[in-house]
Amino acid sequence: MDHAADAHRTDLMTITRFVLNEQSKYPESRGDFTILLSHIVLGCKFVCSAVNKAGLAKLIGLAGETNIQGEEQKKLDVLSNDVFVKALVSSGRTSVLVSEEDEEATFVEPSKRGKYCVVFDPLDGSSNIDCGVSIGTIFGIYTLDHTNEPTTEDVLKPGNEMVAAGYCMYGSSCMLVLSTGTGVHGFTLDPSLGEFILTHPDIKIPKKGNIYSVNEGNAQNWDGPTTKYVEKCKFPKDGSPAKSLRYVGSMVADVHRTLLYGGIFLYPADKKSPNGKLRVLYEVFPMSFLMEQAGGQAFTGQKRALDLVPEKIHERSPIFLGSYDDVEEIKALYAEA
Ligand code: FDP
Protein backbone atom coordinates (compact mmCIF):
# COMPACT_ATOMS: atom_id res chain seq x y z
CA MET A 1 0.00 0.00 0.00
CA ASP A 2 1.35 3.42 -0.88
CA HIS A 3 0.96 5.28 2.44
CA ALA A 4 2.42 8.53 1.14
CA ALA A 5 -0.08 8.68 -1.72
CA ASP A 6 -2.88 7.73 0.66
CA ALA A 7 -1.96 10.49 3.10
CA HIS A 8 -2.00 12.92 0.21
CA ARG A 9 -5.47 11.77 -0.81
CA THR A 10 -6.87 12.11 2.71
CA ASP A 11 -5.24 15.42 3.63
CA LEU A 12 -7.23 17.66 1.33
CA MET A 13 -6.00 21.21 0.82
CA THR A 14 -9.22 23.05 0.00
CA ILE A 15 -9.02 26.55 -1.43
CA THR A 16 -10.37 27.99 1.84
CA ARG A 17 -7.76 26.14 3.90
CA PHE A 18 -5.07 27.31 1.50
CA VAL A 19 -6.10 30.97 1.73
CA LEU A 20 -6.46 30.76 5.53
CA ASN A 21 -2.90 29.37 5.70
CA GLU A 22 -1.70 32.29 3.58
CA GLN A 23 -3.64 34.71 5.77
CA SER A 24 -1.98 33.39 8.94
CA LYS A 25 1.31 34.81 7.62
CA TYR A 26 -0.18 38.29 8.15
CA PRO A 27 -1.13 38.65 11.84
CA GLU A 28 -2.93 41.95 11.15
CA SER A 29 -5.27 40.24 8.64
CA ARG A 30 -8.91 40.03 9.73
CA GLY A 31 -10.03 37.42 7.22
CA ASP A 32 -11.73 39.86 4.82
CA PHE A 33 -9.97 38.41 1.79
CA THR A 34 -10.89 34.84 2.75
CA ILE A 35 -14.54 35.88 3.05
CA LEU A 36 -14.45 37.69 -0.30
CA LEU A 37 -12.84 34.71 -1.97
CA SER A 38 -15.41 32.31 -0.52
CA HIS A 39 -18.12 34.38 -2.22
CA ILE A 40 -16.23 34.30 -5.53
CA VAL A 41 -15.85 30.53 -5.13
CA LEU A 42 -19.59 30.21 -4.52
CA GLY A 43 -20.25 32.15 -7.74
CA CYS A 44 -17.90 29.84 -9.65
CA LYS A 45 -19.57 26.71 -8.28
CA PHE A 46 -22.99 28.06 -9.21
CA VAL A 47 -21.89 28.93 -12.75
CA CYS A 48 -20.17 25.55 -13.11
CA SER A 49 -23.38 23.79 -12.17
CA ALA A 50 -25.42 26.04 -14.50
CA VAL A 51 -22.98 25.43 -17.39
CA ASN A 52 -23.16 21.66 -16.84
CA LYS A 53 -26.95 21.76 -16.88
CA ALA A 54 -27.25 24.39 -19.61
CA GLY A 55 -28.52 22.11 -22.37
CA LEU A 56 -31.00 20.37 -20.07
CA ALA A 57 -32.26 23.52 -18.43
CA LYS A 58 -32.56 25.33 -21.76
CA LEU A 59 -30.17 28.02 -20.57
CA ILE A 60 -28.39 28.21 -23.87
CA GLY A 61 -29.54 30.71 -26.43
CA LEU A 62 -30.10 34.43 -26.41
CA ALA A 63 -31.56 36.33 -23.51
CA GLY A 64 -32.90 38.96 -25.90
CA GLU A 65 -30.59 41.74 -24.76
CA THR A 66 -27.43 43.30 -26.17
CA ASN A 67 -24.60 44.19 -23.79
CA ILE A 68 -22.59 47.42 -23.98
CA GLN A 69 -19.99 45.84 -26.30
CA GLY A 70 -22.79 45.38 -28.84
CA GLU A 71 -22.70 41.60 -28.38
CA GLU A 72 -25.85 39.56 -27.93
CA GLN A 73 -26.18 38.44 -24.34
CA LYS A 74 -26.79 34.78 -23.70
CA LYS A 75 -29.00 33.52 -20.92
CA LEU A 76 -26.01 32.04 -19.14
CA ASP A 77 -24.16 35.38 -19.30
CA VAL A 78 -27.09 37.12 -17.65
CA LEU A 79 -27.46 34.45 -14.99
CA SER A 80 -23.73 34.36 -14.21
CA ASN A 81 -23.57 38.12 -13.89
CA ASP A 82 -26.53 38.19 -11.50
CA VAL A 83 -24.99 35.47 -9.38
CA PHE A 84 -21.59 37.14 -9.12
CA VAL A 85 -22.95 40.63 -8.43
CA LYS A 86 -25.20 39.31 -5.66
CA ALA A 87 -22.48 37.09 -4.18
CA LEU A 88 -19.95 39.95 -4.16
CA VAL A 89 -22.35 42.51 -2.69
CA SER A 90 -23.55 40.11 0.00
CA SER A 91 -19.97 39.32 1.01
CA GLY A 92 -19.91 42.74 2.70
CA ARG A 93 -16.31 43.07 1.54
CA THR A 94 -16.66 45.04 -1.69
CA SER A 95 -17.28 48.69 -2.60
CA VAL A 96 -16.95 48.87 -6.40
CA LEU A 97 -17.73 46.14 -8.95
CA VAL A 98 -17.01 46.27 -12.66
CA SER A 99 -18.55 43.53 -14.78
CA GLU A 100 -18.16 42.96 -18.50
CA GLU A 101 -21.94 42.67 -18.67
CA ASP A 102 -22.79 46.00 -17.01
CA GLU A 103 -22.22 49.31 -18.73
CA GLU A 104 -21.73 51.18 -15.46
CA ALA A 105 -19.78 50.18 -12.37
CA THR A 106 -21.83 48.99 -9.39
CA PHE A 107 -21.32 50.96 -6.18
CA VAL A 108 -22.23 48.91 -3.15
CA GLU A 109 -24.59 50.58 -0.67
CA PRO A 110 -22.78 51.95 2.41
CA SER A 111 -24.12 49.38 4.90
CA LYS A 112 -22.64 46.51 2.84
CA ARG A 113 -19.35 48.11 1.83
CA GLY A 114 -15.92 46.58 2.35
CA LYS A 115 -12.33 47.25 1.42
CA TYR A 116 -12.14 45.49 -1.98
CA CYS A 117 -13.03 46.40 -5.56
CA VAL A 118 -13.61 43.49 -7.95
CA VAL A 119 -13.42 43.61 -11.75
CA PHE A 120 -14.72 40.52 -13.53
CA ASP A 121 -16.04 38.88 -16.63
CA PRO A 122 -18.66 36.47 -15.29
CA LEU A 123 -18.74 34.26 -18.38
CA ASP A 124 -15.96 34.77 -20.88
CA GLY A 125 -15.92 33.05 -24.26
CA SER A 126 -19.67 33.37 -24.76
CA SER A 127 -19.52 32.34 -28.43
CA ASN A 128 -18.56 28.86 -27.15
CA ILE A 129 -21.52 28.40 -24.81
CA ASP A 130 -23.97 26.84 -27.22
CA CYS A 131 -21.55 24.16 -28.43
CA GLY A 132 -20.38 23.11 -24.96
CA VAL A 133 -16.74 24.21 -25.42
CA SER A 134 -14.75 25.46 -22.37
CA ILE A 135 -15.70 28.89 -21.03
CA GLY A 136 -14.72 30.69 -17.86
CA THR A 137 -14.97 33.46 -15.29
CA ILE A 138 -12.09 35.94 -14.92
CA PHE A 139 -11.57 38.25 -11.94
CA GLY A 140 -9.14 40.79 -10.54
CA ILE A 141 -9.15 42.38 -7.09
CA TYR A 142 -7.98 45.82 -5.95
CA THR A 143 -8.05 47.25 -2.43
CA LEU A 144 -9.83 50.50 -1.68
CA ASP A 145 -7.19 52.82 -0.25
CA HIS A 146 -9.49 55.43 1.36
CA THR A 147 -12.74 55.72 3.30
CA ASN A 148 -14.37 58.40 1.13
CA GLU A 149 -17.21 57.77 -1.31
CA PRO A 150 -15.93 55.19 -3.85
CA THR A 151 -15.69 56.19 -7.53
CA THR A 152 -14.58 54.52 -10.77
CA GLU A 153 -11.12 55.99 -10.08
CA ASP A 154 -10.78 53.23 -7.51
CA VAL A 155 -10.56 50.67 -10.31
CA LEU A 156 -8.93 52.79 -13.02
CA LYS A 157 -5.54 51.73 -11.71
CA PRO A 158 -2.68 49.81 -13.31
CA GLY A 159 -2.82 46.04 -13.13
CA ASN A 160 0.35 45.98 -11.05
CA GLU A 161 -1.77 47.34 -8.17
CA MET A 162 -4.09 44.32 -8.17
CA VAL A 163 -3.78 42.28 -4.97
CA ALA A 164 -5.16 39.10 -6.51
CA ALA A 165 -6.39 37.70 -9.79
CA GLY A 166 -7.72 34.45 -11.10
CA TYR A 167 -10.03 32.56 -13.35
CA CYS A 168 -12.31 29.59 -13.18
CA MET A 169 -12.49 27.36 -16.24
CA TYR A 170 -15.64 25.37 -16.89
CA GLY A 171 -14.08 22.64 -19.00
CA SER A 172 -13.71 18.87 -18.88
CA SER A 173 -13.07 19.59 -15.22
CA CYS A 174 -13.80 22.81 -13.34
CA MET A 175 -10.58 24.49 -12.32
CA LEU A 176 -9.94 27.66 -10.37
CA VAL A 177 -6.52 29.24 -10.85
CA LEU A 178 -5.56 31.93 -8.34
CA SER A 179 -2.71 34.23 -7.47
CA THR A 180 -2.54 36.51 -4.46
CA GLY A 181 0.88 37.72 -5.53
CA THR A 182 2.83 34.72 -4.18
CA GLY A 183 2.81 32.40 -7.18
CA VAL A 184 -0.02 30.75 -9.05
CA HIS A 185 -2.03 27.85 -7.66
CA GLY A 186 -4.64 25.66 -9.35
CA PHE A 187 -7.61 24.05 -7.58
CA THR A 188 -9.87 21.44 -9.16
CA LEU A 189 -13.51 21.15 -8.16
CA ASP A 190 -14.28 17.75 -6.69
CA PRO A 191 -17.97 17.53 -7.63
CA SER A 192 -18.68 14.88 -5.00
CA LEU A 193 -17.32 17.12 -2.22
CA GLY A 194 -18.34 20.45 -3.75
CA GLU A 195 -14.87 21.73 -2.84
CA PHE A 196 -11.98 23.12 -4.87
CA ILE A 197 -8.91 21.02 -3.97
CA LEU A 198 -5.32 22.12 -4.55
CA THR A 199 -4.15 20.00 -7.49
CA HIS A 200 -1.64 22.30 -9.19
CA PRO A 201 0.52 24.04 -6.55
CA ASP A 202 2.96 26.75 -7.66
CA ILE A 203 2.35 26.61 -11.43
CA LYS A 204 5.35 27.77 -13.46
CA ILE A 205 4.97 28.36 -17.18
CA PRO A 206 7.72 26.74 -19.31
CA LYS A 207 10.34 29.35 -20.27
CA LYS A 208 9.69 28.64 -23.93
CA GLY A 209 6.82 26.83 -25.59
CA ASN A 210 5.94 25.28 -28.91
CA ILE A 211 2.34 26.50 -29.30
CA TYR A 212 1.01 29.83 -30.58
CA SER A 213 -2.62 30.78 -30.11
CA VAL A 214 -4.29 33.49 -32.19
CA ASN A 215 -7.33 34.08 -34.39
CA GLU A 216 -5.46 33.82 -37.67
CA GLY A 217 -8.58 34.78 -39.61
CA ASN A 218 -7.67 38.39 -38.77
CA ALA A 219 -4.19 38.09 -40.35
CA GLN A 220 -4.89 40.38 -43.32
CA ASN A 221 -5.46 43.26 -40.89
CA TRP A 222 -2.45 42.72 -38.56
CA ASP A 223 0.46 45.12 -38.20
CA GLY A 224 4.05 44.29 -39.29
CA PRO A 225 5.46 42.88 -36.01
CA THR A 226 2.50 40.53 -35.41
CA THR A 227 2.62 39.32 -39.03
CA LYS A 228 6.38 38.71 -38.78
CA TYR A 229 6.02 36.91 -35.46
CA VAL A 230 3.36 34.48 -36.70
CA GLU A 231 5.39 33.90 -39.87
CA LYS A 232 8.36 32.99 -37.62
CA CYS A 233 6.17 30.56 -35.66
CA LYS A 234 5.24 28.76 -38.87
CA PHE A 235 8.47 29.07 -40.87
CA PRO A 236 11.34 29.40 -38.35
CA LYS A 237 14.65 30.28 -39.99
CA ASP A 238 16.89 29.41 -37.03
CA GLY A 239 16.52 25.65 -37.35
CA SER A 240 13.98 25.38 -34.52
CA PRO A 241 10.80 23.38 -35.17
CA ALA A 242 7.64 25.17 -36.30
CA LYS A 243 5.17 25.89 -33.49
CA SER A 244 1.74 24.24 -33.35
CA LEU A 245 -1.37 26.40 -33.59
CA ARG A 246 -4.11 25.94 -30.97
CA TYR A 247 -7.04 28.37 -30.69
CA VAL A 248 -10.20 27.64 -28.73
CA GLY A 249 -11.58 31.18 -28.93
CA SER A 250 -12.27 31.29 -25.17
CA MET A 251 -9.59 33.37 -23.48
CA VAL A 252 -9.73 31.31 -20.29
CA ALA A 253 -9.18 28.03 -22.15
CA ASP A 254 -6.44 29.43 -24.39
CA VAL A 255 -4.62 31.09 -21.49
CA HIS A 256 -5.00 28.01 -19.26
CA ARG A 257 -3.36 25.80 -21.88
CA THR A 258 -0.64 28.39 -22.39
CA LEU A 259 0.03 28.53 -18.64
CA LEU A 260 0.34 24.74 -18.33
CA TYR A 261 2.04 23.84 -21.62
CA GLY A 262 3.88 27.07 -22.45
CA GLY A 263 3.83 29.11 -25.65
CA ILE A 264 2.12 32.36 -26.48
CA PHE A 265 -1.44 33.69 -26.67
CA LEU A 266 -1.98 36.78 -28.76
CA TYR A 267 -4.93 39.03 -29.43
CA PRO A 268 -3.19 41.82 -31.33
CA ALA A 269 -4.45 45.14 -32.63
CA ASP A 270 -5.60 45.08 -36.22
CA LYS A 271 -6.83 47.60 -38.76
CA LYS A 272 -10.44 46.99 -37.77
CA SER A 273 -9.77 47.00 -34.01
CA PRO A 274 -6.82 49.31 -33.33
CA ASN A 275 -7.04 48.58 -29.60
CA GLY A 276 -7.50 44.85 -30.03
CA LYS A 277 -10.55 43.09 -28.64
CA LEU A 278 -9.84 42.10 -25.08
CA ARG A 279 -10.78 44.29 -22.14
CA VAL A 280 -8.04 45.71 -19.96
CA LEU A 281 -9.60 45.50 -16.51
CA TYR A 282 -11.15 42.07 -16.46
CA GLU A 283 -9.31 40.14 -19.20
CA VAL A 284 -5.86 41.61 -19.89
CA PHE A 285 -4.91 42.53 -16.29
CA PRO A 286 -5.93 39.34 -14.44
CA MET A 287 -4.36 37.09 -17.08
CA SER A 288 -1.18 39.22 -17.21
CA PHE A 289 -0.95 39.13 -13.41
CA LEU A 290 -1.16 35.32 -13.45
CA MET A 291 1.36 35.02 -16.30
CA GLU A 292 3.94 37.16 -14.51
CA GLN A 293 3.38 35.31 -11.24
CA ALA A 294 4.00 32.04 -13.12
CA GLY A 295 7.27 33.35 -14.57
CA GLY A 296 5.97 34.44 -17.97
CA GLN A 297 5.40 37.88 -19.46
CA ALA A 298 2.54 40.00 -20.80
CA PHE A 299 3.11 42.78 -23.33
CA THR A 300 0.74 45.14 -25.15
CA GLY A 301 2.87 45.84 -28.21
CA GLN A 302 4.13 48.97 -26.46
CA LYS A 303 4.71 48.18 -22.82
CA ARG A 304 4.36 45.72 -19.95
CA ALA A 305 0.61 45.04 -19.83
CA LEU A 306 0.36 45.49 -16.04
CA ASP A 307 1.72 49.05 -16.36
CA LEU A 308 -1.23 50.23 -18.46
CA VAL A 309 -3.40 52.81 -16.73
CA PRO A 310 -6.98 52.41 -18.00
CA GLU A 311 -9.05 55.56 -18.52
CA LYS A 312 -12.36 53.79 -18.98
CA ILE A 313 -13.74 50.72 -17.26
CA HIS A 314 -14.40 48.83 -20.51
CA GLU A 315 -11.18 49.89 -22.29
CA ARG A 316 -9.50 47.36 -24.63
CA SER A 317 -5.86 46.61 -25.34
CA PRO A 318 -3.82 44.37 -27.63
CA ILE A 319 -2.15 41.58 -25.63
CA PHE A 320 0.69 39.10 -26.11
CA LEU A 321 1.21 36.82 -23.13
CA GLY A 322 2.86 33.55 -22.28
CA SER A 323 6.29 31.97 -21.94
CA TYR A 324 9.08 34.40 -21.10
CA ASP A 325 11.22 33.70 -24.17
CA ASP A 326 8.30 33.70 -26.61
CA VAL A 327 7.12 37.11 -25.41
CA GLU A 328 10.73 38.37 -25.61
CA GLU A 329 10.66 37.58 -29.34
CA ILE A 330 7.54 39.62 -30.01
CA LYS A 331 8.92 42.47 -27.88
CA ALA A 332 12.07 42.49 -30.02
CA LEU A 333 9.98 42.70 -33.23
CA TYR A 334 8.00 45.68 -31.89
CA ALA A 335 11.24 47.34 -30.70
CA GLU A 336 12.74 47.20 -34.20
CA ALA A 337 9.50 48.28 -35.99
P1 FDP B 1 -16.16 35.84 -26.78
O1 FDP B 1 -16.21 36.96 -27.76
O2 FDP B 1 -16.66 34.53 -27.32
O3 FDP B 1 -16.80 36.18 -25.44
O4 FDP B 1 -13.53 38.44 -24.73
C1 FDP B 1 -14.23 37.69 -25.45
C2 FDP B 1 -13.63 36.51 -26.20
O5 FDP B 1 -14.60 35.55 -26.41
C3 FDP B 1 -12.43 35.82 -25.52
O6 FDP B 1 -12.79 34.90 -24.54
C4 FDP B 1 -11.72 35.17 -26.68
O7 FDP B 1 -10.35 34.96 -26.44
C5 FDP B 1 -11.96 36.14 -27.80
O8 FDP B 1 -13.09 36.92 -27.45
C6 FDP B 1 -12.23 35.46 -29.12
O9 FDP B 1 -12.34 36.41 -30.12
P2 FDP B 1 -12.41 36.04 -31.67
O10 FDP B 1 -13.70 35.33 -31.86
O11 FDP B 1 -12.35 37.36 -32.35
O12 FDP B 1 -11.24 35.18 -31.98
From TrEMBL:
GO terms for cellular component: cytosol. GO terms for molecular function: fructose 1,6-bisphosphate 1-phosphatase activity; metal ion binding. It is an enzyme of class 3 (hydrolase). It catalyses: beta-D-fructose 1,6-bisphosphate + H2O = beta-D-fructose 6-phosphate + phosphate. HAMAP family: FBPase_class1. PANTHER family: FRUCTOSE-1,6-BISPHOSPHATASE, CYTOSOLIC, FRUCTOSE-1,6-BISPHOSPHATASE-RELATED. Belongs to the FBPase class 1 family. This is Fructose-1,6-bisphosphatase, cytosolic.
